[in-house]
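Observation: inputs received (chain + iron/sulfur cluster).
Thought: call the complex predictor directly.
Action: predict_structure
Action Input:
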Amino acid sequence: MERNEKRVKTVKEIIVDTSKCVGCRACEIACSAFHTIPKYSSVNTARSRIMVVMDEFRDIFVPIRAGQYTQAECNGRNRYMIDGKEYDECTFCPASCPSRSAFREPDSGLPLKCDMCESDPPLEKPMCVDACTFGALTYEEREEEKAEQETRGDIEIAFEVLAKKYGKKKVMDAFTRLSKD
Ligand code: SF4
Ligand code: SF4
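Observation:
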C-alpha cells in the first residue's frame, strides 16, 4: 500500500560550476577514499560516486554524481550540443545502469550511488566539495516540504542486482548463512 504524507525535508545540493572545473579529479579521489572500508585506507576512482566527464579535446569538464540505480537501459535518450559539439547520449547520465560500467563497484558489480557522504558525526560538507579547491562545487542545504512516498530500500536493490548476477537461490543461501553467523 502506498503512503503519502507531508513532511519537511532537508534538501542537500551540490551546485556545479563547470566554468571553474579544471578536470583535476580531486573530487573523485576524495570520494573513493571516503567510501573505502576502513575510510581513507585506499584510493580507487572506479569506486567513486562522482565522475568527471571530459570531451576528447579536454575543453569541458562536467562532474556528475551517481544517481539512482536503474534496472533497464532507457529507450528515450537526450542528445547534448555544447559549444557546437555533440555529446554521447549517455555522457551526462547519473544513473547506474546495466548498459554501461559507470557507477558500479568494480569487484561486486553493485551499483554506486552518491550518499552525500552521510557519516556519524556528519561532515561539514561533502568530501568532493571539500577537495575541490577551484570552487567548481558548492554545497547548500535548504528546507522543503515534501510528499513522502515509500520507496525501495538500498538492500532490496542490492538483492535484485546480486540475484540477477548469481541467481536468486545462491543469494538467498548466502543471506541465510550470514544471518546465522
Ligand atoms: S575537484 Fe573540482 S576542479 Fe577538480 S575535477 Fe573535481 S570538480 Fe573539477
Ligand atoms: S557527495 Fe560524497 S558521496 Fe557524493 S559524490 Fe561527493 S564525495 Fe561522493
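Thought: report the result.
Final Answer: The pocket of iron/sulfur cluster (ligand 2) is lined by residues 30-31, 34, 49-50, 65, 114-117, 126-128 (CB under 6 Å). The chain has two domains: 7-148, 152-181.
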